Amino acid sequence: MKNVKILLDLQEIMSRSWIVEREKQRVPLEVADLKSLFEEREAKFLATQQEFEQLQKEKRGKEREIEEERDKVERAKAKLMSIKTNKEYYAMLKEIEATKRSNTTREDELLSILSRYEEVEKRLAEFSGEVKELGARYRERMVDIEARMAKFDRDISQLQAKKKEVAMGLDAGLARRFEMIFDRRDGIAIVPARNQSCTGCHMNISPQLFNLLQRDDRIYSCPNCNRIIYFEGDAAEQASG
Predict the structure, then answer these.
(1) 217: pLDDT strictly greater than 80
(2) What span, in angstroms and rounded, lies between the C-alpha atoms of 119 and 123?
(3) Three-state SS string across 191-236, please?
(4) Per-residue pLDDT averaged across 69-92, rounded?
(5) What Cα–Cα distance (Å) separates residue 219 from each residue in 173, 225, 231?
(6) pTM over 0.85
C-alpha cells in the first residue's frame, strides 16, 4: 500500500497549501473596511479643504474691497477742505455717506464669510486629524499584510515543491486523478473505509469491495463519491512500521 501512504502525504500537503491559499485571499479583506473608511474621510477632507480655500479667497477679496472703500472715504474727506462751492461740498458728503453705507453692507458680508470660515476651519481640523490617524493605521496594516503575503508566497512555493517531490512517487495518471478528486471533493480525495462505509460520503460499500480493500494492493474508489478509499488498518500498520 505504498501508493496509499503517498496519497495521504500528498493530501496533507495539498490541504495545507489550500489553507494557505485561502488565507492569502482572505487577508486583504481585513483592510477593505479600513481602506473604504479612509478613502471616504479623505474625500470629505479634500472637499472641505477646497471649500476652505474658496472661503479664504472670498475673505481676502472682501477685506480688500472694504479697505479700498475706506481709503476712498478718507481721500474724499481730505478733498472736502479744498472744495469751494456748497454744491460740490454736499455732493461730496453724499458720496462719502453712500460709500460708508455700501461698506457697511460689505462688512456684514465679511462677517457672514468669517462665520462660515470658522465653522469650515474647525471641520477641516477634525477631518485632518481623522484622516491622518486613519492613514497611519491603514499604512501600518498594509505593511503587516505585505509581510504576511510574502510569507504566504514562501509557504506556497515550499509546499508546491514538496507536492511535486511527493507526487513523483506516483503514476502520472493516478496523480492527475487524485488532483481532480481533490478539487471536486473540497480537498478530501482519499479517505479510509470503516465498518464497510466510505468515511467521505458515509455511504455503504459492498462486502466484496471491502474485502478487496483489505487484501488487495490496487487503488479503489468509493462507488458513490469517487473518492479513493483504503482499508484503515493498512495506513495504521505503515504508520507504526
Answers:
(1) yes
(2) 6
(3) EEEECCEECCCCCECCHHHHHHHHHCCCCEECCCCCCEEEEHHHHH
(4) 90
(5) 12, 15, 11
(6) no
Strand pairing category for 197-198 and 220-221: unpaired
Judge whether residue 238 has pLDDT over 60: no
How does DSSP assign the chain, residue by residue?
-HHHHHHHHHHHHHHHHHHHHHHHHHGGGGGHHHHHHHHHHHHHHHHHHHHHHHHHHHHHHHHHHHHHHHHHHHHHHHHHTT--SHHHHHHHHHHHHHHHHHHHHHHHHHHHHHHHHHHHHHHHHHHHHHHHHHHHHHHHHHHHHHHHHHHHHHHHHHHHHHHHHHHTTS-HHHHHHHHHHHHHTTT--EEEEETTEETTT--B--HHHHHHHHH--S-EE-TTT--EEEEHHHHHHHHH-
Strands 190-194 and 228-231: parallel
Q: Work out the average pLDDT over 220-229.
A: 96
